[in-house]
Amino acid sequence: MTQVNRIVVKVGTSTLAHSTGMLNIRRVEKLVKVLSDLKNAGKEVILVSSGSIGVGSGKLGLKERPKDIPSKQACAAIGQCELMYIYDKLFGEYNHVVSQVLLTKDIIDHDNRERNVINTLSALLSMNVIPIVNENDTVSTDEIEFGDNDTLSAIVSILVNADLLVVLTDIDGLYDSNPSENPDAKLIPRVDTITEDIKRIAGGRGSSLGTGGMITKIQAAELATGRHIPMYIINGQNPDQIYDLFDGEQVGTYFPAQKKEEYI
Protein backbone atom coordinates (compact mmCIF):
# COMPACT_ATOMS: atom_id res chain seq x y z
CA MET A 1 0.00 0.00 0.00
CA THR A 2 2.95 2.34 0.48
CA GLN A 3 3.52 2.14 -3.28
CA VAL A 4 -0.06 3.06 -4.18
CA ASN A 5 -0.15 6.49 -5.78
CA ARG A 6 -3.14 6.50 -8.15
CA ILE A 7 -6.36 5.22 -6.60
CA VAL A 8 -9.82 4.80 -8.09
CA VAL A 9 -12.65 4.80 -5.54
CA LYS A 10 -16.13 3.68 -6.54
CA VAL A 11 -19.09 4.60 -4.38
CA GLY A 12 -22.56 3.13 -4.92
CA THR A 13 -26.02 4.55 -4.50
CA SER A 14 -26.68 2.49 -1.38
CA THR A 15 -23.66 4.15 0.25
CA LEU A 16 -24.42 7.68 -0.91
CA ALA A 17 -28.13 7.78 -0.15
CA HIS A 18 -30.64 6.92 2.52
CA SER A 19 -33.32 4.36 1.70
CA THR A 20 -35.49 7.34 0.73
CA GLY A 21 -33.08 8.13 -2.10
CA MET A 22 -32.09 11.45 -0.53
CA LEU A 23 -28.37 12.01 0.00
CA ASN A 24 -26.82 10.75 3.21
CA ILE A 25 -25.09 14.05 3.90
CA ARG A 26 -23.02 12.89 6.86
CA ARG A 27 -21.60 9.93 4.94
CA VAL A 28 -20.85 11.96 1.82
CA GLU A 29 -19.07 14.56 3.94
CA LYS A 30 -16.93 11.83 5.54
CA LEU A 31 -16.07 10.33 2.17
CA VAL A 32 -15.06 13.70 0.73
CA LYS A 33 -12.93 14.43 3.81
CA VAL A 34 -11.04 11.11 3.50
CA LEU A 35 -10.47 11.50 -0.24
CA SER A 36 -9.33 15.10 0.25
CA ASP A 37 -6.88 13.89 2.89
CA LEU A 38 -5.50 11.31 0.46
CA LYS A 39 -5.04 14.11 -2.06
CA ASN A 40 -3.25 16.18 0.55
CA ALA A 41 -0.94 13.22 1.15
CA GLY A 42 0.06 13.30 -2.52
CA LYS A 43 -2.23 10.58 -3.89
CA GLU A 44 -4.03 10.91 -7.22
CA VAL A 45 -7.74 10.23 -6.71
CA ILE A 46 -10.43 9.36 -9.25
CA LEU A 47 -13.96 8.98 -7.88
CA VAL A 48 -16.48 6.84 -9.75
CA SER A 49 -19.82 7.84 -8.31
CA SER A 50 -23.17 6.18 -8.78
CA GLY A 51 -26.31 7.80 -7.53
CA SER A 52 -27.70 10.08 -10.23
CA ILE A 53 -30.89 8.08 -10.82
CA GLY A 54 -31.32 7.19 -7.14
CA VAL A 55 -30.74 10.75 -5.93
CA GLY A 56 -32.97 12.13 -8.68
CA SER A 57 -35.69 9.69 -7.64
CA GLY A 58 -35.35 10.83 -4.03
CA LYS A 59 -35.49 14.51 -4.95
CA LEU A 60 -38.72 13.86 -6.85
CA GLY A 61 -40.15 12.00 -3.86
CA LEU A 62 -40.36 8.64 -5.64
CA LYS A 63 -40.42 5.62 -3.34
CA GLU A 64 -38.30 3.47 -5.65
CA ARG A 65 -36.17 3.64 -8.74
CA PRO A 66 -38.37 4.10 -11.87
CA LYS A 67 -38.55 1.22 -14.33
CA ASP A 68 -39.26 2.94 -17.65
CA ILE A 69 -36.33 4.40 -19.56
CA PRO A 70 -37.62 8.01 -20.01
CA SER A 71 -38.25 8.31 -16.26
CA LYS A 72 -34.79 6.90 -15.49
CA GLN A 73 -33.22 9.39 -17.87
CA ALA A 74 -35.15 12.26 -16.31
CA CYS A 75 -34.15 11.21 -12.79
CA ALA A 76 -30.52 10.91 -13.91
CA ALA A 77 -30.60 14.46 -15.30
CA ILE A 78 -31.96 15.80 -12.01
CA GLY A 79 -29.74 13.69 -9.77
CA GLN A 80 -26.52 14.42 -11.64
CA CYS A 81 -26.95 18.14 -10.97
CA GLU A 82 -27.52 17.46 -7.29
CA LEU A 83 -24.50 15.15 -6.99
CA MET A 84 -22.06 17.48 -8.70
CA TYR A 85 -23.30 20.46 -6.71
CA ILE A 86 -22.65 18.62 -3.46
CA TYR A 87 -19.26 17.26 -4.55
CA ASP A 88 -18.09 20.63 -5.83
CA LYS A 89 -19.16 22.34 -2.60
CA LEU A 90 -17.65 19.77 -0.23
CA PHE A 91 -14.35 19.21 -2.05
CA GLY A 92 -14.07 22.98 -2.45
CA GLU A 93 -14.08 23.34 1.33
CA TYR A 94 -10.75 21.43 1.30
CA ASN A 95 -9.42 23.50 -1.63
CA HIS A 96 -9.72 20.71 -4.18
CA VAL A 97 -11.12 21.14 -7.68
CA VAL A 98 -13.41 18.50 -9.15
CA SER A 99 -14.53 17.76 -12.69
CA GLN A 100 -17.41 15.82 -14.15
CA VAL A 101 -16.69 13.04 -16.66
CA LEU A 102 -19.71 11.19 -18.10
CA LEU A 103 -18.89 8.03 -20.04
CA THR A 104 -20.61 5.26 -21.98
CA LYS A 105 -19.30 1.74 -22.37
CA ASP A 106 -18.80 2.13 -26.13
CA ILE A 107 -15.61 4.10 -25.43
CA ILE A 108 -13.69 0.84 -25.18
CA ASP A 109 -15.00 -0.25 -28.59
CA HIS A 110 -13.45 2.70 -30.45
CA ASP A 111 -9.72 3.41 -30.25
CA ASN A 112 -10.08 7.15 -30.89
CA ARG A 113 -12.73 7.60 -28.20
CA GLU A 114 -10.77 5.56 -25.72
CA ARG A 115 -7.64 7.61 -26.39
CA ASN A 116 -9.61 10.84 -25.94
CA VAL A 117 -10.86 9.66 -22.55
CA ILE A 118 -7.36 8.62 -21.47
CA ASN A 119 -5.97 11.99 -22.57
CA THR A 120 -8.70 13.92 -20.74
CA LEU A 121 -8.30 11.99 -17.49
CA SER A 122 -4.51 12.28 -17.68
CA ALA A 123 -4.76 16.04 -18.23
CA LEU A 124 -7.14 16.44 -15.29
CA LEU A 125 -4.84 14.48 -12.98
CA SER A 126 -1.83 16.49 -14.13
CA MET A 127 -3.79 19.65 -13.22
CA ASN A 128 -4.31 18.24 -9.70
CA VAL A 129 -8.06 17.86 -10.33
CA ILE A 130 -10.25 15.07 -8.93
CA PRO A 131 -12.22 13.53 -11.83
CA ILE A 132 -15.70 12.39 -10.80
CA VAL A 133 -16.88 9.76 -13.28
CA ASN A 134 -20.35 8.40 -13.87
CA GLU A 135 -22.22 6.64 -16.63
CA ASN A 136 -24.07 8.99 -18.94
CA ASP A 137 -27.46 7.65 -17.90
CA THR A 138 -29.32 10.72 -19.16
CA VAL A 139 -28.91 9.87 -22.83
CA SER A 140 -27.65 6.29 -23.05
CA THR A 141 -30.37 3.68 -22.87
CA ASP A 142 -27.85 0.83 -23.10
CA GLU A 143 -26.09 2.01 -19.93
CA ILE A 144 -29.35 2.20 -18.01
CA GLU A 145 -30.46 -1.26 -19.07
CA PHE A 146 -27.16 -3.11 -18.89
CA GLY A 147 -24.53 -0.87 -17.34
CA ASP A 148 -23.27 -0.66 -13.79
CA ASN A 149 -20.65 1.52 -12.18
CA ASP A 150 -18.75 -1.42 -10.71
CA THR A 151 -17.72 -2.42 -14.22
CA LEU A 152 -17.15 1.23 -15.11
CA SER A 153 -14.80 1.67 -12.16
CA ALA A 154 -12.71 -1.28 -13.35
CA ILE A 155 -12.59 0.14 -16.88
CA VAL A 156 -11.56 3.56 -15.54
CA SER A 157 -8.86 1.91 -13.42
CA ILE A 158 -7.48 0.24 -16.53
CA LEU A 159 -7.67 3.43 -18.62
CA VAL A 160 -5.70 5.47 -16.06
CA ASN A 161 -3.37 2.59 -15.12
CA ALA A 162 -4.40 2.84 -11.47
CA ASP A 163 -2.43 1.29 -8.63
CA LEU A 164 -5.56 0.32 -6.69
CA LEU A 165 -9.35 0.08 -7.08
CA VAL A 166 -11.50 0.41 -3.95
CA VAL A 167 -15.21 -0.40 -4.26
CA LEU A 168 -17.35 0.95 -1.43
CA THR A 169 -20.59 -0.88 -0.79
CA ASP A 170 -23.17 -1.35 1.97
CA ILE A 171 -21.67 -4.52 3.51
CA ASP A 172 -18.20 -5.43 4.78
CA GLY A 173 -17.16 -7.40 1.69
CA LEU A 174 -17.78 -10.78 0.07
CA TYR A 175 -19.34 -13.38 2.37
CA ASP A 176 -19.50 -17.14 1.93
CA SER A 177 -23.31 -16.85 1.93
CA ASN A 178 -25.89 -14.08 2.02
CA PRO A 179 -25.41 -12.31 5.41
CA SER A 180 -28.93 -10.87 5.28
CA GLU A 181 -30.32 -14.42 5.22
CA ASN A 182 -27.66 -16.35 7.13
CA PRO A 183 -26.49 -14.87 10.46
CA ASP A 184 -23.55 -17.32 10.43
CA ALA A 185 -22.22 -16.07 7.10
CA LYS A 186 -18.46 -15.47 7.22
CA LEU A 187 -16.53 -12.69 5.51
CA ILE A 188 -14.01 -13.90 2.91
CA PRO A 189 -10.94 -11.70 3.53
CA ARG A 190 -9.05 -12.60 0.36
CA VAL A 191 -9.90 -14.04 -3.05
CA ASP A 192 -6.83 -15.11 -5.01
CA THR A 193 -8.76 -16.68 -7.89
CA ILE A 194 -12.24 -15.77 -9.08
CA THR A 195 -13.86 -19.14 -9.66
CA GLU A 196 -17.36 -20.12 -10.71
CA ASP A 197 -18.05 -20.91 -7.06
CA ILE A 198 -17.11 -17.34 -6.08
CA LYS A 199 -19.47 -16.01 -8.76
CA ARG A 200 -22.23 -18.28 -7.50
CA ILE A 201 -21.77 -17.02 -3.94
CA ALA A 202 -21.95 -13.43 -5.22
CA GLY A 203 -25.18 -13.94 -7.17
CA GLY A 204 -28.06 -11.53 -6.63
CA ARG A 205 -28.81 -7.85 -7.09
CA GLY A 206 -28.39 -4.83 -4.89
CA SER A 207 -30.75 -2.30 -3.34
CA SER A 208 -33.95 -0.88 -4.84
CA LEU A 209 -32.13 2.38 -5.63
CA GLY A 210 -29.02 0.86 -7.21
CA THR A 211 -28.34 -1.31 -10.24
CA GLY A 212 -25.70 -3.78 -9.18
CA GLY A 213 -25.06 -6.25 -6.43
CA MET A 214 -22.09 -8.34 -5.33
CA ILE A 215 -21.87 -10.17 -8.67
CA THR A 216 -21.06 -6.97 -10.56
CA LYS A 217 -18.30 -6.26 -8.05
CA ILE A 218 -16.82 -9.70 -8.66
CA GLN A 219 -16.94 -9.04 -12.40
CA ALA A 220 -15.17 -5.74 -11.80
CA ALA A 221 -12.51 -7.53 -9.75
CA GLU A 222 -12.02 -10.01 -12.57
CA LEU A 223 -11.47 -7.15 -15.02
CA ALA A 224 -9.16 -5.12 -12.77
CA THR A 225 -6.99 -7.92 -11.39
CA GLY A 226 -6.62 -9.35 -14.88
CA ARG A 227 -4.90 -6.09 -15.81
CA HIS A 228 -2.62 -6.17 -12.78
CA ILE A 229 -4.72 -3.81 -10.62
CA PRO A 230 -5.56 -5.02 -7.10
CA MET A 231 -9.02 -4.33 -5.72
CA TYR A 232 -10.74 -4.12 -2.35
CA ILE A 233 -14.43 -4.34 -1.52
CA ILE A 234 -15.07 -2.52 1.76
CA ASN A 235 -18.00 -1.10 3.68
CA GLY A 236 -18.63 2.47 2.59
CA GLN A 237 -20.76 3.26 5.62
CA ASN A 238 -17.51 4.13 7.37
CA PRO A 239 -15.22 5.82 4.81
CA ASP A 240 -12.48 6.03 7.47
CA GLN A 241 -11.76 2.38 6.63
CA ILE A 242 -9.89 3.68 3.58
CA TYR A 243 -7.31 4.96 6.07
CA ASP A 244 -7.11 1.45 7.52
CA LEU A 245 -6.16 0.09 4.08
CA PHE A 246 -3.21 2.46 3.87
CA ASP A 247 -2.25 1.58 7.45
CA GLY A 248 -1.90 -2.06 6.39
CA GLU A 249 -4.92 -3.36 8.30
CA GLN A 250 -7.17 -6.14 7.03
CA VAL A 251 -10.36 -4.55 5.76
CA GLY A 252 -13.12 -6.01 3.61
CA THR A 253 -12.28 -8.47 0.83
CA TYR A 254 -8.98 -8.20 -1.03
CA PHE A 255 -8.50 -9.29 -4.65
CA PRO A 256 -4.75 -9.29 -5.40
CA ALA A 257 -3.59 -8.43 -8.90
CA GLN A 258 -2.74 -11.35 -11.11
CA LYS A 259 0.90 -11.76 -11.91
CA LYS A 260 1.79 -10.57 -15.38
CA GLU A 261 2.61 -14.03 -16.65
CA GLU A 262 -0.91 -15.13 -15.67
CA TYR A 263 -2.68 -12.82 -18.09
CA ILE A 264 -0.22 -11.97 -20.88
Automatic annotation (TrEMBL):
Catalyzes the transfer of a phosphate group to glutamate to form L-glutamate 5-phosphate. Pathway: Amino-acid biosynthesis; L-proline biosynthesis; L-glutamate 5-semialdehyde from L-glutamate: step 1/2. Residues 5-235 form the Aspartate/glutamate/uridylate kinase domain. GO terms for biological process: L-proline biosynthetic process. It catalyses: L-glutamate + ATP = L-glutamyl 5-phosphate + ADP. Substrate binds at S50, D137, N149. It is an enzyme of class 2 (transferase). The keyword Disulfide bond does not apply. Keywords: Amino-acid biosynthesis, ATP-binding, Cytoplasm, Kinase, Nucleotide-binding, Proline biosynthesis, Transferase. Pfam families: AA_kinase. Its EC number is 2.7.2.11. ATP binds at K10, T169, D170, T211, G212, G213, M214, I215, T216, K217. It comes from [Clostridium] methylpentosum DSM 5476. GO terms for molecular function: ATP binding; glutamate 5-kinase activity. Its main location: cytoplasm. The gene is proB. This is Glutamate 5-kinase.
